[in-house]
Amino acid sequence: MASYAIFVVFAGGAALRDASGSIGDLHNGTLFDCVQAGTCKYGLFNSYQMMTIMSSWWPLIYAGCFAATLSTALTNLLSVPRLIQAIGVDKIYPGFYFFSKGYGKHGEPYRGYVLTFFVSTAFLLIAQLNAIAPLISNFYLASYALINFCTFHAALIKPLGWRPTFRYYNTWLSLFGFIICVVIMFLINWWSSLATFIIIWGLYLLVVYRKPDVNWGSSTQAQTYKTALTTTQRLNNIDEHVKNYKPQILLLCSGPYVRPALLDFANLITKRHSLLIIGDVVNKQLDYKIRAAMINKAYKYLKINKMKAFYSLVDNVSFEAGSKALLQTVGIGKLSPNVVMMGYKNDWMSCHKQELNMYFNVLHAAFDNRMSVTILRVPGGLDHSKNFIEEEPGNVAALTSTVHLPLPTSNSLMHADSNLSLDRVESADVTMPANMVNTNNAHSTPPLNNGPNSKHPVTNNELILSVQEKNFLDRFDLFSRKQNKGCIDVWWLYDDGGLTMLLPYIISTRNSWHSCKLRVFALATNKNELEVEERNMAHLLEKFRLEYSSLKMVSISEKPQDSTIAFFDDLLVRFRQPSDNRTGNSENDCFVTEKEIQALQDKTYRQLRLRELLLENSSKSNLVVMSLPMPRKGTVSAPLYMAWLEVLTRDMPPYLLVRGNQQSVLTFYS
Q1: Contact, 363 vs 632, CB < 8 A?
Q2: Which one of 13, 418, 526, 610 has the fewest CB atoms closer than 10 angstroms to its CB?
């Protein structure tokens, strides 16, 4: 390095930049006349033979040039094919994978050798070294500039792995070297410098676009971590404003592949613009390997389905204890959930009473932590865990394999109250990939061929199976596929801060739901002034800048029909208890006494009347969103509350129950 610096000083001190080559000009004082006239043929800038002129023995210069050329050629012959092979192995650029194949014990890159040979030959055939010298020089200077910038960036970020061994290294010296290299590039030749930067920038954008599955431990990873940490800490010092409100969802859905429709619906709301955390509570204790395998499988599922979410796993606790732990600990700073989303418990009438109490207590815990609550119910249910082959908790390989789906098994595909039986269909296992839920042709079935010349005539059992399989797949991508033209009915019954109105509005802005218009239903406090209240509500929605297709005020002061009351009474047959003798035990608390039914009769009748209005107005909607009844602690029992929800959601389209935490999420101002 010192010899290069000495040579620069020696060459600059012994020769001029521009010279005419005449000694008479030196004596006459006209040495620089050729510069003004532009006729200088000698000097460091104009003559490529200045080194031979200045040397004591000119053949030595040619020998040095040939030696340096051969040394560089041999170095490139050994290193460039290896570099091309590494690029092909990492699949960084398309077309280079062909050169990733190695031969022999040491994996020699013979294909890379051939490519290097042809490229070198092409440059030799140009036979004009001076024509390509500016471009080659600029490429070298660009590489030096990038090295200087990389060291500067690493020193600026200061990752723990950055420990330079050069004693006199300085951060700002690297930045100065980067700037000097760029300046020299443009001084040599501006157009080749511009072409060099365009090529480098294009290669960088191609790597960013392709996102190769490699990890180089670059300083950009450290920069990403530092930026995320700094931004998260800065958020804590910023007061929240209603204009910047975002629903940050904690989704209690077990694994993301168990309830895909619930995950799709939550992702429909957040959609890369808000926080989504998937909470998974496992009753059994998991060791490190199984836990890591479950986490990797969950994130792989999210990556395949292009969902931006986090996954949090809690093990060795009950559903209630694990959910409460997630409610209190998940998130960091302002990046913490403010909405809890759960699936509706379809088996609340037949499950163990302790499970029902735990589900009910989780709702109380969410409200106690000042969080909004949403419950989603879809026809057929959300939980598909029974449709998958059970995986042994200790089998790590099963957690990383494909999902095995026994499609034609008995009644496992049907809703609990379905009377369709598939017991006559022979069982068969069908292996399906875990990311089947978002494939475009997930529902496509081959055309039925039952003609006389058909090689494979369709039997009755196969026909039943194909319909059942289609219904099963329809529930998988219920909220990920494009919706037909329809409507989203919003039953805004209570003032909860506006979340009941905001969530369906967000859904209606998504591309897959863009064809669905909002229809708003609101409660009228005075039956005789429906028109006045409707005008007031329309004015309110206009101030909130919420687009809707229709608005209707409804009244629930009338008594429900006898058939509806009888339907409700049938729901509570298993839970009725004649006297109020609760002892605090979860088993004894999961009953409904006549005293409680009489005390809450007015509220019950309101839910029954709402059911009649729902069946009348919203039975054909694409989605129904309604304010969730408030489960008053110590006032309403778990079975009675679930009976209210059952009355509202039974035999309805996809149904979302929403209850805000009284925090305002809508504003008049933009």
Answers
A1: no
A2: 13
